[in-house]
Amino acid sequence: MASLGAEAEQEPLLGHSIPGSREWDIIETEEHYKSRWRSIRILYLTMFLSSVGNVAVIRSYIAGATSLQERTSSMANTSACQALGFILGPVFQTCFALIGEKGMTWDTIKLQINMYTAPVLLGAFLGILNIILILTVLREHRVDDSGRQCKNINFEEASTDEVQVPQGNIDQVAVVATNVLFFVILFIFALFETIVTPLTMDMYAWTREQAVLYDGIILAALGVEAVIIFMGIKLLSKKVGERAILLGGLIVVWVGFFILLPWGHQFPKIQWEDLHNNSIPNATFGEIIITLWKIPREDHNEGPTGCPVEQAWCLYTPMIHLAQFLTSAVLIGIGYPSCNVMSYTLYSKILGPKPQGVYMGWLTASGSAARILGPVFISQVYAAWGPRWAFSLVCGMVVLTITLLGVVYRRLIAFSVRHGRIQE
Q: What whole-number distance in Å separates Cα of residue 200 and Cα of residue 58?
């Protein structure tokens, strides 16, 4: 984890460095610099090992311990570590399956180590390791938006470069707008994760086992893609800025969901096995639909494949081709991580150098609400009206989000830029 963003971390806080010298426009002591980045790297590791419940605290710390120039790179590294943890966690789980159900028993303490207990024990060990590193290495550091160190409990000695936290009002409109943007971004990805399995089973007649395997591979590939995007964002943001990347990411997400809309004249396979002898001769189309809707689904171990007859839209909605689905997944895999990083990077810059714990907690709460409501929304709309309505509504939601971003675009600037302390 320490190697992520190493080049960006070595950049001066302000101005250009003189070869062989650590003296820039604002001097930071060697001790403070090393301790500050040791602490940040420990939080990268924390995000990698156990991000649940720690996200708001970690983002708040990194926002307070980095200058504006360092912020985007550090936030991207944080997201990359989190994504790596999400990717490698299932991989380790799969590897532990080789131990088997019987495994081995440590007779001294009556501890059985098998495919079920090994992941838990590894998680506990990594948690203890993380706690030790936090207690022994992590130190409190604060710098302002220019990178000048503020007074803190670790470096109490007087220094001509230490500054007090600047005063000023936070742009509450920008804060609320960014929370809304973050909510929509996580809402959209949460519903995409949710709809992948039922969509592929309905459209391509995959069995449950095939859907779990193939969709797992697709989501893992999206995780790898996200890590690559996180690393590329660090370079791109220096050229075009965070707001432009956020706007571009939303546009890419819109294109991804637009591609998912059903077109053409080819229809998905229907689970006609459920009809049996319930055919209705000389019945109208409406009567057929009502009858099919009321037919209970059978519960088989293998189960019929295809689009279930309970979903009336299966009879008249064209299928989404596999090429459409994969193209859409790639585009959403590009747009989502771009929007995700840029939203909370801009959020931290809007809040400025003041402690951001409470505000970051609100941002995390909005993201958590999105992950709850997204699956509920897509499940109900998809089952009742089908993919055409579901993805059309998502496209409309993204358009409204892009409109909101356009309205507040000029307000999404750093605290110090807004108060004239630093030029954008």
A: 36
In this structure, the strands spanning 104-106 and 111-113 are: antiparallel
Q: Which residue has the tokens 């090393």?
A: 34
Q: What gap in Å lies between CA 185 and CA 24, rounded to an integer?
A: 39
Residue 14 main-chain phi, psi, to 5 deg:
-140, 145
Q: How many CA atoms lie within 13 Å of 49's alpha carbon, on the beta-carbon side?
A: 20
pLDDT in tens, 22-42: 333 445 677 777 777 777 777
Show the tokens assigned to 56. 């708001």
Per cent of the chain over pLDDT 90 is: 23
pTM of the full structure: 0.70
Q: C-alpha angle 304/309/315, rounded to 5°?
A: 120
Window from 200-209, 221-230, 293-302, 311-320 with minimum mean pLDDT: 293-302
| Amino acid identity for residue 268 in this structure | P
| Burial track 139-161 (b if 16+ CB lie within 10 A, e otherwise) | bebbbbbbbbbbebeebeeeeee
- Six-digit token pair at 217? 């591979």
